Amino acid sequence: MEENYLSRPLIDGISYEISDTRIAIQSSCTCYINCMRPTRMDKDALLRQYRNVLAMAKAQGIRIKYAKHVRKTIQQLWPAYEADFAEQEKLFDRLVELAWQVKARGIHWRSVDDEVLSTLVKAGFQLAAYGYGGTPTSGIEDIRSFLTSHERSLSRVNDPCSMIVL
Known about the structure:
Layout: H1 2-6, E1 15-18, E2 22-26, E3 31-36, H2 43-59, E4 63-65, H3 70-105, H4 115-129, H5 136-155, E5 163-165
């Protein structure tokens, strides 16, 4: 089947962007893969951001409710986040290898039969799944986004707020 696939004509207009930080393989009408190497978050920076939000709220006399247990959640999720991040790094390295193989072979008509391309696309979906809800990565990302949102709202002068939940 592999020989049959490789004997088909190549699809014209495929662009390949393969680097240590990004993989994008696409044509004018199809995006085969488009992903970025995940960026490791710094636990100390996240905890500083938490303390900053806390200090800003206290300085403005805003009531603070600790129902979300943000600091505790960071501490609990962090070991699993680190393990997930290591897996994401390995997976992205594998994606880079597969992307170079796809580029070397080219993408041929009826690419559904291309086993290397199929493996690449499936691995891309695996990488994307780390960002889905319920994973340690998504939990830490949600907390970072939550804290960033609070920082923005607390820094606005005309945005009265009587309570924040941390």
